[in-house]
Amino acid sequence: GSSCASVHDFSLLVCSGLEPAVVYRFPFLNRGLTPTHRVELPRSADFDHVNCACVGDLDFDGRPEIVVGTVGEQLLFYRRVEAAQNADSGRYE
User: Fold this and answer.
1) CB atoms within 10 A of CB 25
2) Which residues, other chains included, contact 31 with Cβ-Cβ below 8 Å and sequence gap of 6+?
3) Residues 34-80: pLDDT tens digits?
4) Under DSSP, is residue 75 helix (H, G, I), strand (E, B) or coil?
5) 0.85 surpassed by pTM
6) How far apart are CA 1 and CA 8, in angstroms?
7) Where do the coiled-coil regions begin and end (predicted)?
8) Do residues 37 and 24 lie in contact, with contact meaning Cβ atoms separated by under 8 Å?
9) What are the tens digits of pLDDT across the range 3-41?
10) What's the CA gap between 21 and 54, in Å, rounded?
11) β-pairing, 22-25 with 65-70?
12) Smallest Cα–Cα separation from 15: which of 68, 90, 63?
């Protein structure tokens, strides 16, 4: 049989040269890109322009991490920390 990922399994990483990088949680649940489901990556706009990003299980813990690269050759590593009261919310650090 085939296995399809649920729309709950997707998030959207958006990088910009002028704004902080953000992750939209579950953008395909008819909510669109709403501010209530937007999680900003801290300090992602503090150095210079973001020009690349990679998402993957970089520390082999079974959960995806984010690496953001900048024009000035800074690499910023983020891991998601779930909120204790709500699995749909959380932050990146």
Assistant:
1) 19
2) 37
3) 777 788 999 988 888 899 999 999 999 998 999 999 998 999 999 98
4) strand
5) no
6) 20
7) none
8) yes
9) 555 555 678 888 888 889 998 877 676 666 777 778 899
10) 12
11) unpaired
12) 68
The amino acid at 37: H
Residue carrying the six token digits 């009261």: 85
Q: What is the residue type of 59?
A: D
Query: Would you give the distance in Å from CA 30 to the centre of its chain?
Result: 19
Beta carbons of 47 and 56 less than 8 angstroms apart:
no
Query: How long a stretch of residues is the chain?
Result: 93
> CA 25 from chain center: how many Å?
8
- Here the tokens at position 65 are 């991490």
How many other CB atoms are there within 10 angstroms of residue 21's CB atom?
Answer: 22
Position 39 scores a pLDDT of: 87
* Nearest-angstrom CA–CA distance, 15 and 41: 10
Q: Residue 4 and residue 16: Cα distance in Å, rounded?
A: 30
* C-alpha span between 60 and 79 (Å, rounded): 12
Token pair in block for residue 78: 């983020």
